[in-house]
Structure formats: C-alpha cells, structure tokens
Protein: HipA-like kinase domain-containing protein
Amino acid sequence: MPIEIDEVLRRSEQGATEPYICRGSDGKLYFVKGKGAGYDSLVKEWVAGQLARQLDLPIPRFCVVMVPQELYDAGRNGALRDLGYGFLFGSENVENVNEVSLVNVQHAPAKLKRDIAAFDWWIRNGDRTLTDSGGNPNLLWSESARRLVVIDHNLAFDEEVTLHSQLESHIFSSSLAEICEQSALQGHYNARFEKALTDLPQILGDIPERWHYVDDARTVEINLSLDLVEDTLRRHRVPAFWERI
Structure:
C-alpha cells in the first residue's frame, strides 16, 4: 500500500528537481517528486531504483506515496504548485549524510565504485560527476557509517550518454575503465544485469498509470517510452557494450 503524505514541511533547495520534504503516515520523512519533476522522471526513478535494489546498491528506501488532493489544493497556487496529487515518488530521508566530496569518496570500496559505474552505464545515467572544479555526484556520504548512499536517477535512459562520455565524466570513470579492460568483470556484470532483468516486467507493471501521462486528464503521454527503457537495458547483450571506440 502507498504511504499517505500527511504533511508537507518544505521544499528542498538541493537537486535540480527540488523535491518536497514531507511527513508520511508512518511518521517518516520523504523526499517527494511529482508534477514539477515531470512524470517521466518518476518513471525513471522507479525503474532505476528497482534495478539498483536488484544489484544491491546502497540506495534509500523508496516507494509510491499518496498525496491527497485536498492537501495539494490547499497550496496549489503557491508553495505546492509543483507537487501535484495522487500517486507520486517518495524517497525516504537518510539521517546524518552530506553530499560526497573528493576527499571522502576515496574511502568507498573499489567494488562499490565499479558497481555504481557499471550500473550508470547500463541505465545510461550521465548525471554523476565530480571533479576539482565541481560537479553533481548524486551521492551522499555518511561519516559515522563511512558509507555511500546512491540517489537521483531522474536523468537515466538518456540516449546521448555513451561509453565515451561516461569514461570522460563519470565520478568513477577509472572504475568503468577497469571493467572495460577485463573480460571477467564484463561477464560478471552482464550476468548480474541479466538476473536483474527477470523482474523487469513486474517493475514496469507496477508503475502507476498516472505517471505515463503529462496531464491530469491523461491525454498527453510522456516522452519516455517503455520500449526505450527495455532496449536500453538489453544493450549489454551486444559485445560492443563494453568496447571503447
């Protein structure tokens, strides 16, 4: 059952989509993305998040949340104009974390760096960058637990993302290069991708119908097609998937 949102506390100033920080009926805080983020981005978050779970990546718990229409209507002409109502995407708040830096990212295990780099190339997510001059890592760091938390996949399934662009700009580009140079690692990830895909029909089937449309009247479909999503996720079956051109 979806978690019902009881209260909207404020809007986050972090992240391009500026999610709303809300309290759910379970008493927990959620970063909620809805109308303003674009319903295609909710589909991307859902699919990528479910696949990340299958690959055991350290992502926050997420779920479909329900925003009552009366709650949205109370602020739709003001602070809540970009929230929307009905079924939306909610990611549970993680306590005591900060955006990762070049200093603490070095403490992440080599295997996890490879896992993230491989995953982002698989789903064509080019939105995980960090250099001395800045970037957008979409990774959080827990100093107390000394671990990474992986967030934000609203720009996944981008046809403009290539292996070359990932090797140039991804925060873990050297880890991706390592995979490209070792056939054993390629086989390892191809097998993991294939296993994760067994749940894809269920993942796609669980997407709320509302998310397939731009408007509340459900007359205009979102730009993202599920065929594109499936085609993207099957690319690893082609030998050239890991080949540097």
User: Anything to note?
Assistant: The helical segments are 39-54, 69-73, 110-122, 163-169, 173-181, 183-197, 200-205, 226-233. The beta strands are 3-11, 20-24, 29-33, 62-67, 86-92, 98-99, 139-142, 147-150. The mean pLDDT is 95. DSSP finds eight helices and eight strands in the chain.
